[in-house]
Amino acid sequence: MGGERSATAQPVMDYSFDSGGLVLSGHLAEPADGGANPPGLVLCHGFPTRGRESPQSGISFPELADRIASELGWLVLAMNFRGCGNAEGNFSLRGWLDDVEAAVGHVCELGAVGVWLVGYGTGGSLAVVEGARNRSVRGVGAMATPSGFDDWAKHPRRLLLHARQVQVIKDQAFPEDFDAWSAELRSVKPLESAAALAPRPLLVMHGDRDDLTQLGNGRAIAEAHGSAELRVLSGAGHELRHDPRAVAVLMGWLRRQRIASEIEGSGASATSQRDAGADGAADGAGAQPPPP
C-alpha cells in the first residue's frame, strides 16, 4: 500500500493502512540492511494547532522515522491519525486510540518482533493508554504528554470548535452523538494506564519551559508508572520533536531497548534449549533396555 518517492526527495507521508474501515496515511521506514524480524516502532504526532493545522500534522515525522530505521535498524511507521494529513475520518479520542491499535497491529503483520510506541503531546497520552491495554507493545516513549484530558472534558464544545478550526473534523454533521463523543474525553485515562503499563519500560521526556503542557504532567505520568525514565530538558518548550537533545535521548533509549530485547530473547532461547536437553536426558535415564 506504500507510495513511491525519489531517493533525494524529503520523506513524506506516502504510505497507507486501514483502521476500522478508514484509510490512514503514514510513512513506512524499513531497515537499510533488510534484516528479517526487526523491532517495530510506531510514531504518533500530537493534536494540530492554529497555524499548524491538520494538513501539516506529522510532516517532520517521516524524516525521524527514516533516521531510526537507517541508524538503529528498526521498522518504523509514522502515522497520521484520522482527520489529519491525508487520513480519512474525523477526530474522536477513542477513534484516535483505535488508530494506534491499528498501527500496532499493522507493524506486527509486517513481521516486527515486538512493537514500541513513541508519541508526542496527545499522541504520547494515547501511546501510554494503548501500551497498557495491548500486550504486543513492549515499551512506550511519551514526549511533552498530557496526563489527562480533563480540560477538554470540561469544555467539549470549545474543543469541537477548535477541532473544526484546525480541520481534524471536516464533516459538519460530525459527531452524530455529541454526548457520546464528549464522554470519550473522560474515558481515556493516561495516569491509570501508566500504572498498568508497568513494569514494561516507559520513557517520559518533558521540557521545563513547556507552556502548552506543564512539566507537572510528565512528572505525574512517571510517578504513576513507578519506574519510568524521566528526562527533563532544561529550557525546552513543547516542540520536542525539533529539539536535537530530545532526538538524541530518544535514539539512545531505542538503542538500549533493542539491546535489552535481544538479550531477553537470547536468554529465553537458551532456557528453552536447556529445558529441552534436560527433558531428553530424563527420558534417556528412565528408558529400559529391550528384553533379550
CATH class: Alpha Beta
Counting DSSP E segments of at least 2 residues, the number of strands comes to 8
Low-confidence stretches: 1-8, 284-292
Tell me the helix content: 40-55%
Indicate the mean pLDDT: 90
The fraction of residues in strands falls at 15-25%
What can be said about the biggest beta sheet? 8 strands, mixed
CATH architecture: 3-Layer(aba) Sandwich
Total tally of structural domains: 1
Distance between the termini: 67 Å
Full CATH superfamily name: Alpha/Beta hydrolase fold, catalytic domain
CATH topology: Rossmann fold
Question: In words, what does this structure look like?
Answer:
Helix 1 (61-72) links the parallel strand 3 (40-44) and strand 4. The relative contact order is 0.12. Mean pLDDT is 90; it is low at 1-8 and 284-292. The chain is 44% helix and 16% strand. Helix 2 crosses helix 3 (122-133), helix 3 (122-133) packs across helix 7 (190-197) and helix 7 (190-197) runs parallel beside helix 8. The protein has helices spanning 61-72, 93-109, 122-133, 150-154, 156-165, 178-187, 190-197, 215-225, 244-286, and strands at 15-19, 22-29, 40-44, 75-79, 115-120, 137-143, 202-207, 229-233. The longest helix is centred in the last third of the chain and has 43 residues, at 244-286. Strands 1-2-4-3-5-6-7-8 form an eight-stranded mixed beta sheet, with helices on both faces. The chain is of the alpha/beta class. The chain has a single domain (16-263), classed as 3-Layer(aba) Sandwich (Rossmann fold). It is built from nine helices and eight strands.
Key terms:
eight-stranded mixed sheet; Rossmann fold; disordered N terminus; globular; 9 helices; disordered C terminus; alpha/beta; 292 residues; single chain
